[in-house]
Structures are given as C-alpha cells and as structure tokens.
Design a protein that fits this description.
Blueprint lengths: L2 H21 L2 H6 L1 E8 L8 E3 L1 H14 L4 E8 L5 E9 L6 E9 L5 E8 L10
Parallel strand pairs: 1-6
Antiparallel strand pairs: 1-2, 3-4, 4-5, 5-6
Length: about 130
C-alpha cells in the first residue's frame, strides 16, 4: 500500500466511525478499533483516558444509552503522516449550543484505530460570510 492508499483507508475509517455513532451501531464502531485502543477525553478529569477495546465499548454503550440523538458534522482530513487523521467536529444537541471538538486519530498498520486524542475547542467559530 502506498502512503496515499493508507491515508484514504484511514480517512474512510474515521468517516465510518462517525457514521456508526450517528447510527448508534456499537458493533460497527468497535470493529474499527485495535484491541489495545485508547481515547482521551479532556472533560472527564481523572477518567480522561479510556484504554482497551472493552472499556471503550462500555463508555460508548453508555454514551448511546444516556445521550439523546445528536448531529455530528465531521470534516475529516488526512495528514502528511499517513497514520494520523484529524477530524474537526460540530456536535449539535437539541436545545443546546453546538460543541466544537478536534480529534486526532492514530492508526496501526492494519488500519485499526489505536488512539483518539479529543481536543475541546473553546474558541468562537467563524461566522459564514465574514
């Protein structure tokens, strides 16, 4: 596989992961992860890092069960390093202002997600037309 093939594969995996979240399909979501995957959540304090597929699955199952359906608008970009993908998210929860996040995805040689570093964007979004 060329570096460009790897970039395309990994971008497609990130897009598939967010579609699985929209669909609340835990099986598809989990199939995209390495068994040793981890995710960091800056808003979780002492529990900011979740490690291992079983723990990731549990956190995501709870998220699907406790959060109402919400909009996920993801701009997904390949980076120069083919094992990294950046996702810029707008999450729309009914009755609340949007939440903006950046997520840096890391991939292994098989195209499985090994890590997602979530970055909470507290900045003001650009206004269209300005």
């Amino acid at each position: 596989m060329t570096d460009e093939d790897v970039r395309i594969r990994n971008v497609n995996a990130v897009e598939a992961m967010y579609q699985a979240e929209r669909d609340r399909d835990l099986g598809v979501w989990a199939a995209l992860w390495s068994s040793s995957g981890r995710q960091t959540f800056p808003t979780m304090g002492a529990d900011a890092t979740v490690t291992g597929l079983a723990a990731l699955r549990d956190v995501t199952r709870e998220k699907f069960a406790t959060r109402p359906p919400y909009g996920i608008d993801a701009a997904v970009d390949a980076l120069v390093d083919p094992t990294l993908v950046l996702a810029r998210l707008r999450l729309d929860y009914p009755g609340n202002p949007p939440i903006y996040l950046w997520c840096l995805f890391h991939f292994d040689d098989q195209g499985l997600i090994t890590e997602v570093e979530e970055i909470f964007d507290r900045g003001t979004p650009a206004i269209a037309g300005s």
